[in-house]
Every structure is written in C-alpha cells, then in structure tokens.
Design goal:
The complex is a heterodimer of chains A (363) and B (643). By secondary structure, chain A is α/β, with parallel strands linked by helices. Chain A is built from 13 helices and 15 strands. Chain B is an alpha/beta fold and 643 residues long. Chain B is 37% helix and 18% strand. In chain B, strand 18, helix 16 and strand 19 form a beta-alpha-beta unit. The chains are: A alpha/beta (363), B alpha/beta (643).
Chain lengths: 363, 643
C-alpha cells in the first residue's frame, strides 16, 4: 500500500490536466458525473468539492509508487531495472494464422484473449475497438467474435480504463484487460487503492509494449491521407524504418514517422514504462520477425494462462535471443533515464522509485 | 362564464385587477385587442381572449409589443376601439411606435395598458412607465383600486377618441394581481366597421409637418388637462385646508389612507388622491398647495408626481404660494429596503414616513418581530433557491450547454435571455449564463462577444433564447450575426409555449390567442433561411445533445441548436414513468458523485433521505423525464415506463 497522500480533482486538474500530462487512459471518468474524456483530454465539468478522490488516486500521472506496486503485485522489489519484474521473456505467436493476419505481428494478444474467454478464465475482456481501424474506443468483448473484432494496433489514444470501470459495473466477475502502460498502471492503482470499487473483479491484465500514442487530433490527418479507402491496418514498423504505414483496401500509404509524431500525446513523453511493467503478461513486437511477438511473463497468473494456451495449442513459443533481450533492456533503460532526468528538471515528477534504483538508472 | 363577461349591470363581483381592465374594455365596446404576455399584465389579454368569440371582437397575441401596438394602432386609425396590453418593459419595446403614433393621432379609442412591477418580482427592471406618458406627451390614468381599473380603462377609450390621441393606463403588480369588488356596468356592443378612405393619412410627419403635429399634440394635452381638472378619479379627503397634505396616486392611495387612519391623523392630514396623473391637473393641485405648508408624496417607484408638483409649486411661488416643505423620495422619507425610488410601496413605508415627518410615535414592527417570524417560518418552509420545475427540459439543456462548453475548453461566454430559462444564471441552471438583460439581448450581446477576437477576446459566444423570445426579439440579431460574420452559437430552448408567463401560444405553436389553429412558423426554417448551420435535438437525449453542441462549437460562423422538448406543465403526460432509486445501488456518501442528484442536478423530484443517507425520488413531484437516471454514475435510478 502506497503511503503517498491522495488528493482531489482540483489537484488532478492542477498537476496533470493543466500541464497537459493527461494520457487519456480514462481512469478518472465513469466514476462521477463531473469528469468527461473528450478527444484525448480529461475535462472537469463541475467541482465535486472532494479533497480526496478516486480520480486523483487512480490516475497514472498523479503519482506512481513503483516499489509499492511492485511489492503488491510481484511480492518483491524489481530485480530488472530496465523492464521490471518478470518470470520469463520469450517469443510467441498465435498458432492460428488467421488471427495472426488480422492482428499485429504474432497475434498473441488476440489469441490469449479469445482463449481466456472461451475457456471461462475471464467472462469479459475490455479492449480497444475501432470502427474504422483509425479511431479507438473502449469496448467489452464477451466472446471470440467480439474479441477478434478488436484485433490490431490503434495508435490514437483510447480511454480503455473507462471501459474497465463500466465492466466492473456490468460484470459479475473475472474481467480481462488489454491496455497500454498507463492504462494497466491505472488498473493496478485501482486494485491497490483504499477506495472500494470492486477492482478484485479484474482477473487478467495483458499489457502492450508502448512508446507513444497520438492524440485524437491525428484522426483528421490520417483520414485525409486515406481518403475514401478502407483502412485494413495501421503500423509503425520497428526501427530503422522510421515510417508510419496505412494499409488500405486500395493501397499502402507510407509517411515519415515524424509527421505522425507531431500528434504524440505530451503525456507519453513523461512515460517511463515502455514494456508495461505492471501487467500479468506484456506483449510487443520482435524486430525483424514480423510473425512473432516478444512476451514478458511477469506474474504467476500470467504464466499459468500462457502455459494453458500453449498446452491447448493456441499459442506456440520459442526462446528470445540474448541480443534481442539486451537490446530491449537497453532501449527501455535509455527511455527511463531520459524521463527521470526530464521530469525532475521540469518538476513533473510523478514517479516514486527507490533511491538506489534511481541512481542506477540515471548513471 | 367568467365574471369578466357577465352582462348584469349593477352586479358586484370579485375581479382581479387585470380582469377589471379587461372588463373596462368590454364595457367600452372594444373591437381590437393585442399584446404580448409578461408579468404582471398577461391576464388582461387572456381574459379578453376568453370573451372575444362571444362578444364578437378580435384578440391577438402579437409577436412582440411593438407589433402589438402597431396592429392596434392600425385598427384605431380606422375608427375601431383598440387596446394593447403589456408589462412595463414592453413599453420599451413599443416605444418607437408610441413616440410617433402620439403625433399621428387616432380616430377610434386607442388605449395602451402597462403593468409595472415595482420590486421587479418577475421583471429585470422596475421601470416606471409613467415616464413614457410624459415623454410621449399622452394622457395617463393611474387606477388605485380594482373598481378604478375597470372604470378608468372604459373612460380611457372615450377620452382617447374624443381627444384623438392614444391614452395610457398604468397598473402595478399589487393592483393587477389582487382581487377586489367591482360594480359592473353594461357591456357595450356597437359593431363598428373599419374605415380607411383615400383621404386618410396617418403619420407623425417630419420637419415642419412634424412640428405642426407636435403642436397639435400639445393642444390635445391641454384639453386632456382641462378634463382632468374635473375628473371623478381625483379627490381630496381629510381635514379641509390642511397644512399637511399627502399627494398620492395608484396603490399609494390605499396605503396613505390606511397609514393616516392607523396613526389617527385624520383631523390633521389631508389626502389628495390623483387618478389622472399626466398631464397634471394643475388647478386642482394648486388649490390644495395654496393651503399646504408640508406635502408628502406617496407613489410607486419614481418621484413622478413629486417632480411634476414641485415644478408647479415653483411657478405658484410667484403668486405667493408657499413656502412648502416637500417630503418623499428626494428627502428619503419614502424609501424601500434599498433606498428611495426602489422597491414596492407598502403601508409600513407610508407610516414610517408620516411618523418621521409628523414626529408621532407608532410602533412599527421591530427587527425582533421579523427575525422571530423568519425563524418560525423556516421550521415549516425550508429555504429554497429558485429552481426549474421537475422534469423541465431547460435543466437538461443547461447541463448539456455546461458540458459542451467545458468540453470545448475555451471558456465560452454564455449570454442569457428572458424566460423561465433566465434561471440559467442561478445554480438551477448550473450558473451557465453570464449576462441577462431584456428580450433578445442574449443573441444581441453574443453578436458582440463573438466579434471581439481582434481585441484579444477569443472565446466562443453562446446565446440562449426561448422559442417565444426567438420570435419576439432575436431575428434582427440573428441576421446581424450572419451579415457581420459573428462567430456565435444560438441555443433556442423550444418548449412549444410561452412558459414563464402562463403558457400562451406563440407563432410556432400552431394556435392563436383565441384558440384557433394557425400556420406554424418554424424556428429552423427561419434560421436556415438566414444561412445558419441548424440542428434540432431533444435535450433529454443528453449524450446526443452534448455531442452536437460540442461539434457546433468547433465550427465557425453562425450556428443554431434548437433544443426541442415540450414544457411538461403545459403538456402533461397522460402516464408518467415510474422513477425510483434502487437503494442497493445508490452508493450514498461513498459514491464519488457527492449527492449529484440533489446537490448539483437539483431537480425538485430528487430528494435526499437523510435517515438512510441515500437518494430518493419524490414521486408526487417527479415528472418521469428520467434524465437523473441517465446522469446517476451508479446507475441507481430506475425508470419504468408505465404502459
């Protein structure tokens, strides 16, 4: 349990929203009638008058007490300062090639979610859905069909945690969540919170590797490029491609990544968590192997479900090469170092990290 | 049949002041009536509209007061007897025509009735319309009793017809809305025919012609004055040739009479009660000034008599009258809670003035009395702020406006207007509106706010207007916004009635004043014709309402959102939905909403059960709109449609 003081919406406005650090995860909405999520911005409608609020407590940018979360989730402080607590790191992919083709890379997320739903390990999964493969809004999937409709990466922010709160209201138990680092952090903060919101209903957290997301303002930009064509998939291929790819039913459109980077949420620039360190399982790409995912198994629950999926023949795995592992750690650590230095300098520090860890990261 | 219409001369009936005015018009044989609803005058036209079919005369609610005066003016030009009734601020709206038709004159009896609202109980200004009579140089009658309201209105037609000039009758809230015994006269029905010959010419003229008409008006006024000297509506009571006299008019008369009686000053004080207050019956007043050493003026709102009599006294000084000491508003003896010339008169104010001037003791109720009364009262009646009714669509509209403006994030300026939705400035409207003046000023000022970008004010302007207000006063500013490229969003709160003044019809309702069906003039058609982006939405479809408003705020230019939902008081549902709170789902103090339903949303149908510490619905008051259920974050409010 973190010992950091919980404050209210006024402070949320002051230290997060007003500073442009809201990541639009959705953790502060759907709790009360006073905060709405509007095009990637949390908006305070009316002061509720509370000096302590869930909105502040759940927000992944008010404070993140890393050692406290590590202890709560993993039972111990982290040993790997670059990518967080983990049991194993492997490569994996969905065996079903149809899933792979509609999903991003190896399709591990889609395969895991559908497997968990079909075997009753979860009753519902909160996912980001896109009507046109460009925008993203949270949805609650209850079966394979609904889950597969959500396959594929979305680059525009999605207030997924709003969907989690909705699922808590609607579902009796066992909710799975697929989310970015800020979203998963928010869910973990909910579970650790003194506020009672039945967060124990949340059973499985699948985290996506994430380096940034773009604001909904990018929607118009992408839409203009795509025109009347139907988008099949958006993609940021691993470096050094440095491009943003829009695969449509008509053609493949490439633009320099910097064009899209202009729309990056400022909140992403202060994110220290590239590999989704508080998830049960984190999933990302493998550079140079488009058919596979990098998977970090972090908790016992994560390990159990992955093993079950492998045993059921839904997912296949293979070891991750050392060079790739080292490269991932290096990239993650570089980011942490930059973020820690910058947030300290700009007084936007929301992270609590053990002093000994911090000095190791920064040095 | 109402007492207004019964044809039994000599019968004594109880009438509301406004009904008495209507009865006076009936007894005068009125042919043509018009007006625009507004407190405290609305019931005049309503009573006339009810009587119109049987008595065979014409009544219309006009789109606004100047149109009302113009249509009635036309009828009067043709020799018909015409009456126009309006509230005090209506006189502002019709002032343009008034200031010229006074010069053009009239053939038939033409009467303007204004209802003033001292203390501004339901008005945005306690304007004293007697000043318009002086400004327009037209005869003014001020009834003091319900009987006079009837008798003066009747006489005003005769006077107007005889002099050939519009005459004004001024009432105030306390007279318009109180009831008194009235002895009825015969109802007159001379069916007149309207005539307009090729020789007819009705104009105020200009240049020399105008000056000539102006001088004719002065002659008419002189003749009015001569008649006023003999008028039975002016009288003197109390001590003959008293040193101390009260000069009073309107409701000041009963207050003065009572004050003198309560203080036992009948043998010292005389009261000159004037019913014909402009032009001043100077000879009559002079005859009393000659014996007076002290004069106290007791009149509603402005020191109108006070100033006119003082001018007369200055002239009389040369003839050796005086010196006279005057008391009233200038001397601060007749003063309301907020000072002289503000607030309504009452007996206490008259008594206090008399005790101060006459140095006689009278134990007015002390401060302790009112404090004790307040305390006792509060145990029965809790303190409440003004609020929209249960199920009022305006509450839904203002929540949507509040949200859309917050979503937009540019700190939009919301300009309010006149109607039930004037409450948009108060917590019941989430304090959304930031300006409130006269009808149409919402969109007018928004035109300005929306055009101040080059001066560094880059905030969206949102104007609010009701449906009736839209027709009344918003169209010129709407055109102006389009013409001058003002970046505004007009939100029309269309509840299909003129709700605040008592559910009168308007051009969009498809009904006229006499209850006949009429063509509907659609707000969206007008706005589209002007070139605005127009959307129509039910504010109870809250998500859609907010989303649409937000989208429109992002668009440049002139936008009009019509929030359309009928006033539940005017159009009550046959079966209303059953709304209740699932006591298990209401999270009480634990919920992050902090009593949203009762603390912020504030519908009178939402109440808080302090014993259980949970939300509750007052089933008697609830109108079943279900909006609170949509907004409750715990989903604890359940709406069951009753089939």
């Amino acid at each position: 349990m973190s010992s950091i003081a919980v404050k209210g919406p006024k402070d949320l406005q002051k230290i997060v929203i007003a500073k442009g650090l809201c990541s639009a995860c959705g953790a502060c909405t759907n709790l009360c009638p006073y905060i709405d999520m509007v095009k990637g911005r949390a908006v305070l409608i009316e002061p509720c008058g509370l000096s302590e609020g869930k909105c502040y407590d759940f927000c992944p940018r008010t404070y993140v007490d890393v050692p406290s979360l590590d202890k709560t989730i993993f039972g111990s402080y982290r040993k790997n300062l670059a990518i967080g607590s983990n049991i194993s790191i492997i490569k994996a992919r969905a065996k079903d090639s149809k899933i792979r083709s509609s999903a991003q890379y190896g399709g591990v997320v889609s395969a895991l979610v559908t497997y968990a739903l079909e075997t009753g390990k979860i009753d519902a999964a909160v996912l980001a859905k896109s009507k046109d493969k460009i925008s993203a809004e949270p949805t609650i999937a209850r079966n394979r069909k609904e889950a597969l409709e959500c396959a594929g990466s979305k680059y525009i922010v999605c207030p997924t945690v709003t969907g989690v709160l909705e699922a808590i209201k609607q579902e009796k138990s066992k909710i799975g969540v697929v989310g970015t680092s800020c979203q998963i952090t928010a869910v973990r903060k909910m579970q650790a919170s003194n506020f009672e919101i039945e967060a124990d209903k949340i059973g499985l957290l699948i985290g996506l590797f994430c380096t940034w997301a773009v604001s909904p303002k990018a929607y118009g930009y992408i839409k203009d490029l795509v025109g009347s064509a139907k988008v099949i998939k958006l993609d940021v291929p691993p470096p050094p491609a440095n491009i943003f790819v829009m695969q449509t039913d008509a053609k493949r459109i490439e633009v320099p990544l910097d064009e899209v980077r202009k729309f990056i949420m400022p909140a992403c620039n202060v994110c220290f968590d590239m590999t989704n360190e508080f998830a049960d399982i984190s999933v990302g790409t493998v550079e140079g192997e488009e058919d596979w995912n990098t998977v970090i198994v972090r908790t016992k629950e994560g390990e159990k479900i992955l093993q079950a999926a492998v045993d059921a023949g839904v997912i296949e795995t293979k070891p991750l090469e050392k060079e790739r592992f080292d490269h991932l750690c290096e990239a993650s650590l570089t980011r942490k170092k930059r973020v820690l230095t910058e947030t300290e300098a700009e007084k936007t520090a929301y992270l609590t990290i053990r002093e000994e860890d911090k000095s190791k990261i920064v040095s | 049949m109402s007492y207004v219409e019964i044809d039994e001369p000599g019968k004594r009936v109880l009438l509301m002041g406004n009904e008495a005015v209507a009865r006076g018009a009936l007894e005068a044989g009125v042919d043509f009536c018009s007006g625009y609803p507004g407190n405290p005058a609305s019931e005049i036209l309503e009573a006339l509209a009810k009587a119109a079919k049987k008595a065979d005369f014409y009544v219309e609610w006009s789109v606004n007061e100047i149109v009302a005066l113009e249509v009635a003016g036309a009828a009067a030009f043709t020799g018909l007897r015409a009456l126009t009734a309006m509230k005090n601020l209506g006189a502002d709206v019709c002032a343009d025509f008034l200031m010229t038709t006074n010069l053009s004159g009239t053939r038939g009896g033409f009467v303007l009735v204004t209802g003033d609202d001292p203390s501004a109980h339901s008005t945005t200004s306690e304007l004293d319309t007697r000043n318009y009579a002086r400004l327009a140089e037209i005869p003014l009658l001020e009834p003091a009793t319900t009987q006079e309201a009837k008798d003066m209105t009747k006489w005003a037609f005769d006077l107007s017809q005889e002099l050939g000039v519009i005459c004004m009758v001024r009432t105030v809230t306390r007279l318009s809305h109180s009831r008194g015994v009235v002895t009825l006269g015969p109802i007159k029905r001379d069916k007149r025919s309207a005539e307009f010959s090729s020789q007819d010419m009705w104009t105020s003229g200009s240049s020399n012609i105008q000056c000539m008409f102006h001088s004719i008006l002065h002659e008419k006024l002189k003749r009015a004055q001569q008649k006023f000297e003999e008028s039975k509506f002016n009288w003197y009571v109390g001590k003959e040739n008293a040193d101390f006299i009260i000069i009073t008019s309107g409701t000041g008369w009963p207050y003065s009479f009572e004050a003198v009686k309560l203080l036992g000053l009948e043998n010292e004080v005389g009261i000159l009660k004037l019913g014909t207050t402009w032009p001043l019956p100077e000879k009559l007043v002079a005859s009393h000034l000659k014996h007076a050493k002290e004069v106290l003026f007791v009149e509603e709102t402005d020191p109108f008599l006070e100033q006119n009599v003082k001018i007369l006294a200055a002239e009389l000084a040369a003839e050796g009258v005086g010196p006279i000491t005057f008391y009233g508003k200038k001397s601060n003896h007749i003063r309301g809670e907020f000072g002289a010339g503000t607030g309504e008169l009452n007996v206490d104010i008259a008594i206090r003035a008399l005790t101060e001037v006459k140095k006689v003791p009278y134990p007015l109720r002390g401060k302790e009395y009112s404090e004790k009364a307040q305390k006792l009262l509060s145990s029965y009646v809790p303190a409440r702020s003004m609020s929209f009714c249960a199920g009022c669509p305006h509450r839904a509209s203002f929540w949507a406006i509040k949200k859309a403006a917050k979503w937009d994030g540019r700190d939009a300026i919301v300009t309010g207007d006149i109607g039930c939705y004037s409450l948009g400035m108060l917590p019941t409207g989430f304090s959304v509106a930031k300006t409130l003046h006269c009808m149409g000023a919402g969109i007018g000022t928004a035109n300005g706010f929306g055009n101040l970008k080059e001066f560094g004010l880059d905030k969206p302007a949102i104007a609010i207007a009701g449906d009736s207000t839209f027709y009344h006063a918003c169209m010129p500013a709407l055109v102006n916004a389009r013409w001058n490229g003002s970046n505004i969003l007009l939100v029309v709160l269309d509840n299909n009635t003129t709700a605040m003044t008592g559910h009168q019809p308007h051009p969009g309702t498809g009904v006229n004043a006499m209850g006949d069906s009429s063509p509907r003039v659609l707000i969206e058609d007008i706005c589209k014709a002007v070139g605005a982006e127009v959307r129509v939405c039910d504010p109870f479809d809250q998500d859609e309402a907010v989303q649409n408003l937000y989208e429109m705020l992002q668009n440049e230019g002139l936008k009009v959102m019509i929030f359309r939902h009928e006033c539940p008081l005017a159009f009550p549902k046959e079966k209303k939905a059953k709304v209740y709170v699932d006591q298990d789902k209401c999270l009480s103090e634990e919920c992050g909403c902090v009593k949203f339903c009762t603390r912020v949303f504030g519908c009178p149908g939402n109440i808080w059960d302090y014993e259980k510490g949970k939300a509750k619905i007052d089933e008697v008051i609830c109108n079943g709109c279900g909006l609170c259920a949509k907004l409750c974050p715990a989903g604890a409010i359940i709406v069951e449609e009753v089939t």
